[in-house]
Amino acid sequence: MPQTGNGSRRVAFFLWVLLSLQLAGSVRSEQDYDEIGKQPHNYYGRTPADRVTNLKTALESGSIPLDRTGERAFVLSLLKALGVPASSQMLVFSTTSLQLRLISPRNPRALYFSEDVYLGFIPGGQIEVIALDPELGAVFYIFDIPKKDQPLVMQRSNRCMNCHAAEETNYVPGLVVKSVVPGPTGGSLIAFRKNQTGHAVPFEDRFGGWYVTGDRDIGGHWGNLIGSLASGELTRTPIEPGALFDFQQYPVATSDVLPQLVHEHQLGFVNRAVEASYRVRTHLHLDDGKLTAAHGKILEEQAKELARYLLFVDEASLPEVGIGGDPAFKHDFLDGKRTDSQGRSLKDFELRARLFRYRCSYMIYSPLFQGLPVLLKAQVYEYLDEALSGRAPGFEHIPLAERTAIRSILEQTLPDLADGWSQAARAGGHSGSAKQ
Asked: Backbone phi, then psi, for 92, in 5-degree steps?
């Protein structure tokens, strides 16, 4: 049954409208990194080194065979070839995509992800792939699903850059996730949480325009709803996942809340890491490899922000009932996890008050983080050292026992940690590796 908001809900809704308009009207006052197509980045002129680009020739030639018996079969085989779990499937029905004319509550777009590859599939449409290059950031491909003996042609797309290298990503090649109030056909009535990505976004502002499945009734979000406006009043109508479309068109029959939460966390990290990398690389280029004091300060600020994000500062709380999570996704996500001698991993879920048991992101292992400029990564490690040893304020959300566990996991699973990292912490010293 439709649910009509009361007076306070209408006030809150129009406050969101006002905030959205304010954010939409804001522009970056000064961009402190060069145009991405110029040196030192040369985004459009360099051959990327991401997973998809490295496999492109083998996929197009058939050296890595793909199942062409149907759309679903093709997507499943492509996901397997790219190392992306089908269990990560998320279904979005708002028309917030390049192929918006095909998307609706009756024909949702499916998204899948790993740590460095993101794939989009719409029944009857093209395949969209985003791969993360350790230096360039997001690299975009779009292509038709080949039929029978048709060749597979994976075209690199610049059209995606209209949204993925614009205001919402601070003009670097990044990732975009939207939460909107969708109308009956998927068109957006209003968008909120604009320009926000990551685990700090309040739970009640998430999933607008997305189908959400799970093993418990968590509520309190904008998923599984369409809206309508009449006489200034918003009416929300629930829609059941699978009621308007057939799950059999898709690789799996879920749009589970857990991969959506993990996906949100990853996007927040990716966008911050890509922007920091572009900024620092620009300043090193302008300063002939030796940062000025002003640019050194920017490096420190970017490193501190990344360290804070990695340690889940400002993470929004999960609903009181907690999150169950699809067992298949849990299995796939935990496969190959790095553990310390006690079997502890940064991928271990908590799912009651927060997402992970140990609040340091597993994205620290990702090619994107490991490909950061050397000075930037060393500075991030230094801030992590200070935070986990208790020498830096602002990390009181992590109790001592958890900080000790995180240090153990990092020291045993990250070979490139600065020499003497743990010794310096115990001695109350300072590595200074990024300030030499």
From this structure: -120, 135
Comparing CA positions, the residue from 245, 224, 222, 226 lying closest to residue 187 is 226
Task: Report the pLDDT value the prediction gives residue 233, as an integer from 0 to 100.
Answer: 79
Angle between helices 327-334 and 257-286 (to 10 degrees): 30
Supply the pLDDT for residue 337: 96
Q: At what angle do helices 374-388 and 293-310 cross, to 10 degrees?
A: 50
- How many whole angstroms from its chain centre is CA 397? 23
DSSP 172-232: SS-----EEEE-TTS-EEEEESTT--STTS-GGG--TTB--B-SS---SSSTTEEEEEETT
Amino acid identity for residue 219 in this structure: G
Q: What is the dihedral of CA 364, 370, 374, 378, to 10 degrees?
A: 20
23-32 contacts, C-beta under 8 A, 24 or more apart = 23/194, 23/195, 24/194, 27/167, 28/167, 28/170, 28/171, 31/171, 32/279, 32/282, 32/283, 32/298
CA distance 291 to 285: 9
Which pair of tokens denotes residue 82? 């790219």
Q: What is the pLDDT of residue 16?
A: 41
Contact predicate 204/190, CB 8 Å: no
Long-range contacts from 238-246, C-beta under 8 angstroms, 24+ separation:
238/1, 238/3, 239/105, 239/211, 241/91, 241/211, 241/212, 241/213, 244/105, 244/106, 245/105, 245/106, 245/107, 245/108
Using only the alpha carbons of the chain, give its radius of gyration.
22
CB 60 within 8 A of CB 156: no
271-285 b/e (C-beta count within 10 Å ≥ 16 → b): bbbbbbbbbbbbbbe
Distance of alpha carbon 122 from alpha carbon 69, whole angstroms = 17
Res. 31 pLDDT band, cuts 50 70 90: low
The pair of three-digit structure tokens given for residue 118, joined into one six-digit string: 């993101």
Query: pTM for this one?
Result: 0.87
Task: Give CA 20 to chain center in angstroms.
Answer: 21
Q: Is residue 386 within 8 Å of 314, Cβ to Cβ?
A: no
d(CA 190, CA 183): 9
Per mean pLDDT, which range of 141-145, 186-190, 390-394 is the poorest?
A: 186-190
Is the Cβ–Cβ distance between 127 and 121 less than 8 Å? yes
In this structure, which amino acid lies at residue 75? V
- β-sheet bridge partners, residue 120: 111, 128
The three-point CA angle 46-163-95 to 5° equals 135
Kindly report, residue by residue over 36-71, the tens digit of the pLDDT. Answer: 888 899 999 999 999 999 999 999 999 999 999 999
